Amino acid sequence: MGDINSRLIELADKYNISKASEFAEKTGFNHQTASNYLKGRRTPNAEALAVIKQKFDNIDLNWLITGEGEMEEKMVLKETTPDYSLGNMPNVITVDHQGNENILMVPVPAQAGYLHGYEDPQYLQQLPAYRLPKLSNGTFRMFEVKGHSMYPTIHSGAIAVGEWCENWQQDIKDNQIYIVVSKEDGIVIKRCLNRLQKYGNLFAKSDNRAEFPSYPIKLEDIVEVWTLKTAFIFDFQDPADLFNRVSDLEAEMLQLRTFLPAKN
Questions:
Q1: What is the pLDDT of residue 40?
Q2: What is the mean pLDDT of the chain?
Q3: pLDDT higher at 87 or 42
Q4: Beta-bridge mates of residue 163
Q5: Strand order in the sheet with 129-130
Q6: Which end of the chain is more exposed for a tag (fewer CB within 10 A), N or C?
């Protein structure tokens, strides 16, 4: 089994330390102390052993003291809790003359490049920037809406304004509307069901569900999430249209009943 001094010699050989001066430089001991340890004239005390462990941090202290086990500690893999705050904070912002943060706008023609340029300062600085009332103390971005999947809530051509969502697992609430930037689908605006922890995905739901079915977005495909805060709507629906359709349906049902035989 040997003693501590002989194991110090093994340790020095492992690290190609052949001289007492080299051992002294590695550990911080003076030359005489280092020489005494390596030549067996003096055994390290607890304080000296702690220093040696600190300087050779992968050495098994139990081996050094008792000779049992291996010289180097075995690496233990620990389970880690997945981090669902995967998005990097936007690294490009612009400010007005008062130092207030502007809001970048991503129009439809620029959205194809956004997936590759969302972290590129040169690309982002080319986007138009605006200030909006009542939107402060946060990082916001505007996206022009393309398509009719969220009709009638948000129509194609509207401007959706989102606030940066930092912690996806905690902050994405079921059935709220989010702007999701993903590798597979690009920029989409959907109501989401948060199942990141349970299934590793978001379920994206359209308001126009007759034409656009729900689908999952995998966690590894998501690059940014923005919480919808407001939207600029340019297509104002007449609520009377819906009322008239309901009235027509009611009239048709009543008319149909007149043709049904009465029950005795």
A1: 87
A2: 84
A3: 42
A4: 140, 227
A5: 129-130, 103-106, 140-144, 159-164, 222-232, 176-182, 186-195, 201-205, 215-218
A6: C
For residues 200, 205, 210, 213, the Cα torsion angle rounded to the nearest 10 degrees is -20
Strand partners of residue 142: 105, 161
CA dist 24 and 98 (Å) reads: 58
Enter the DSSP assignment of 55.
H
Note whether 43 and 4 are within 8 A (CB).
yes
Beta 103-106 vs 140-144: how paired, if at all? parallel
Cα separation, 35 vs 45, in Å, equals 15
Dist CA 216 CA 203 (whole Å): 4
Structure tokens at 168: 């996806």
The candidate with the shortest Cα–Cα distance to 224, out of 143, 168, 171, is 168
- Burial class for 262, CB neighbours closer than 10 Å (0-12, 13-18, 19+): exposed
Q: Where are the beta strands (DSSP E) in the chain?
A: 103-106, 129-130, 140-144, 159-164, 176-182, 186-195, 201-205, 215-218, 222-232
